[in-house]
Design goal:
Layout lengths: L8 E10 L19 E5 L2 E9 L7 H17 L3 E2 L5 E2 L2 H10 L2 H11 L2 E10 L1 H10 L2 H10 L8 H30 L5 E4 L7 E10 L3 H15 L3 E9 L15
Antiparallel strand pairs: 1-3, 1-4, 1-5, 2-3, 6-8, 6-9, 7-8
Helix pairs in contact: 5-6
């Protein structure tokens, strides 16, 4: 590249917010050649953007993490409609014309629906040793089967081991459903909405996304603490947030208004 030649860039879009807002300072944009975050105002809306080189496709884990850090930091301070990772358009004018103008009414409505709300994510993990011990203590048939194959040749007890594994897995799934139901019931009074998701992993207990009003945040966090105290070391809870409300973006109405 000759001296003075500029790298061709496109515009990366992080989020839509209300116009005339100030976003947090010191946030690093996506991409290897980091520029600066900008806010493009249009009517009552604004888009948070940055320049990215067109010859360096995004997709690194660092890029995804940078995107999430930006939208989550904005969400801590104001109502935000986060864009999915990887949203690149030709230039700033395209952001105004094709994003903000064409979707103006929906974005205004969606921001109103989420006004004053933030998302939290609650993860819970079982202590696997305690989980297995509790399951065997609560089921005589499983306990007897477990005892009968202990110390025995694995080939000779192959089918019994498979049967026991299936029985334990079924009971773990029942416990997950019960615990997710308990968590939803305990937290719902302090939330606008609760979404129960798949826990994942052998030790996964609960995985909830929760939409919370900012002025109810303290009550919600106290409810999470109380739940953790009641479960003790049976389930290790981890509360993440506030984060951008990816799981609660309002769906646009159908053309017939339904």
């Amino acid at each position: 590249m000759s001296e003075g030649t500029k790298t061709k860039t496109a515009t990366y879009v992080y989020a839509v917010v209300a116009a005339e807002v100030s976003i947090p300072e010191g946030l690093e944009p996506v991409g290897e050649e980091r520029g600066e975050l900008e806010v493009l105002d249009h009517r009552s809306l604004a888009a948070v953007v940055s320049d990215v080189p067109v010859d360096k496709p995004l997709g690194r884990r660092q890029d995804l993490m940078a995107h999430e850090r930006v939208v989550n930091a904005i969400a801590e301070q104001m109502t935000v409609l986060p864009m999915r990772f990887g949203g690149v358009v030709e230039n700033d004018q395209a952001v105004v014309d094709e994003l903000l103008e064409q979707n103006h009414d929906y974005f205004v409505w969606a921001l109103e629906q989420l006004e004053g709300c933030v998302q939290f994510v609650l993860h819970g993990r079982y202590d696997q040793d305690q989980l297995l011990a509790r399951i065997l203590e609560g089921d005589a048939e499983m306990a007897e089967l477990s005892e009968s194959i202990r110390g025995q040749d694995e080939d000779a007890t192959y089918y019994d081991r498979i049967r026991l594994g299936e029985m334990i897995a079924s009971q773990v799934e029942r416990e997950r459903e019960a615990d997710a139901g308990t968590a939803e019931e305990r937290l719902s009074p302090f939330a606008v909405a609760v979404l129960v998701k798949e826990a994942g992993g052998e030790d996964g207990a609960v995985n909830l996304s929760v939409l919370v009003r900012r002025d109810h945040r303290s009550d919600f966090e106290q409810a999470v603490d109380a739940l953790g105290d009641d479960w003790g070391d049976r389930v290790a809870l981890r509360l993440i947030g506030p984060v951008a409300p990816f799981d609660f973006l309002p769906e646009p109405a159908d053309e017939d208004g339904s």
